[in-house]
């Protein structure tokens, strides 16, 4: 079955450590997205990529980095510069086109040790 | 500020109907969507409506669209405990171009609680 796989489900970060969240899709979608969700708040866009080897900052990109070397993969690195990384991170993908639906993975919950 | 407005909470009894309302700002999209998020999970595309339709029915789900007022609603008939979740209606828009920015703006959603 086609879908989006995020791993790990739970992740813990130590002080000063970078961590990388994985997102893989086999839907053959060109566009991929990373969102952050905090309790009681909406999803906030961190980064998005509309095509391989290209990505754009979203609303809250500071302290995060991404790469898009393959169509299927869009890993997100939470760097030590992100001072409040505890959140639920969601990856999504879509085909290009205004109004095309985004399809989401099951999320990664990141906590501070 | 938010591009969509939804009530944060809704509580209903099992078997009753639920109506979740949404007011959005950008109406350039061909489709409008409802997503469901169960606890600890990602967002699941629940249903959608074509922007030139007023209503769409899909089993227990009815979507109503008032494009003039930019108002979207989701009615769940015979609400079950499994319907307890957060429901999102993202504002869909973005600049049109060769690589369309498929921009979806999600508010905090409406948390539906179904009591037995």
Topology at a glance:
The complex is a heterodimer of chains A (113) and B (116).
Chain A: E1 4-7, E2 10-13, E3 19-25, E4 31-37, E5 43-51, E6 54-57, E7 64-66, E8 76-78, E9 87-94, E10 103-104, E11 108-112
Parallel strand pairs in A: 2-11
Antiparallel strand pairs in A: 1-3, 3-8, 4-5, 4-9, 5-6, 7-8, 9-10, 9-11
Chain B: E1 4-5, E2 9-13, E3 18-24, E4 31-37, E5 43-50, E6 55-58, E7 61-66, E8 71-76, E9 85-88, E10 91-93, E11 103-105, E12 110-115
Parallel strand pairs in B: 2-12
Antiparallel strand pairs in B: 1-3, 3-8, 4-5, 4-9, 6-7, 7-8, 9-12, 10-11
Offer a concise description of the structure.
Chain A is an all-beta fold. Chain A has no helices and 11 strands. In chain A, the strands form 2 sheets. In chain A, strands 2, 4, 5, 6, 9, 10 and 11 form a 7-stranded mixed β-sheet that branches. In chain A, strands 1-3-8-7 form a 4-stranded antiparallel β-sheet, with no helix packed on it.
Rounded mean pLDDT of chain A is 93
Apparent shape of chain B: globular
| Run of helices and strands of chain A | EEEEEEEEEEE
Percentage beta strand of chain A = over 45%
The tally of beta strands of chain B, per DSSP, is 12
Rg over alpha carbons of chain B: 14 Å
Characterization of the model:
The complex is a heterodimer of chains A (113) and B (116). Chain A is mostly beta strands and 113 residues long. Chain A is 0% helix and 50% strand. Chain A has no helices and eleven strands. Chain A has strands at residues 4-7, 10-13, 19-25, 31-37, 43-51, 54-57, 64-66, 76-78, 87-94, 103-104, 108-112. In chain A, strands 2, 4, 5, 6, 9, 10 and 11 form a seven-stranded mixed β-sheet that branches. A four-stranded antiparallel β-sheet of chain A has the order 1-3-8-7, with no helix packed on it. Chain A is globular and about 40 Å long. Chain A starts with a strand and ends with a strand. Chain B is mainly beta. Chain B contains no helices and twelve strands. Chain B has strands spanning 4-5, 9-13, 18-24, 31-37, 43-50, 55-58, 61-66, 71-76, 85-88, 91-93, 103-105, 110-115. In chain B, strand 7 (61-66) and strand 8 (71-76) form a beta hairpin. Residues 95-100 of chain B have low confidence and may be disordered. The chains are: A mainly beta (113), B mainly beta (116).
């Amino acid at each position: 079955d086609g879908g989006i796989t995020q791993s790990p489900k739970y992740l813990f970060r130590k002080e000063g450590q970078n961590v990388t969240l994985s997102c893989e899709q086999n839907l053959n979608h060109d566009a991929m997205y990373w969102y952050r969700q905090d309790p009681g708040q909406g999803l906030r866009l961190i980064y998005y990529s509309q095509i391989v080897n290209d990505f754009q900052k979203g609303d809250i990109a500071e302290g995060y980095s991404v790469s898009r070397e393959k169509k299927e993969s869009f890993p997100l690195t939470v760097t030590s510069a992100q001072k409040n990384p505890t959140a639920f991170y969601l990856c999504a993908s879509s085909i290009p086109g205004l109004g095309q639906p985004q399809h989401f993975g099951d999320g990664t919950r990141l906590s501070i040790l | 500020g938010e591009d969509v407005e939804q009530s944060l909470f809704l509580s209903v009894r099992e078997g009753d109907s639920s109506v979740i309302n949404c007011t959005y700002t950008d109406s350039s999209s061909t489709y409008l969507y409802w997503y469901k998020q169960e606890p600890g999970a990602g967002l699941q595309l629940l249903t959608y409506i074509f922007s030139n339709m007023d209503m769409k029915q899909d089993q227990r789900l009815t979507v109503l669209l008032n494009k003039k007022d930019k108002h979207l609603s989701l009615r769940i008939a015979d609400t079950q405990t499994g319907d307890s979740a957060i429901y999102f209606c993202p504002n869909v828009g973005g600049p049109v171009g060769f690589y369309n920015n498929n921009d979806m703006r999600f508010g905090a959603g409406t948390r539906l609680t179904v009591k037995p």
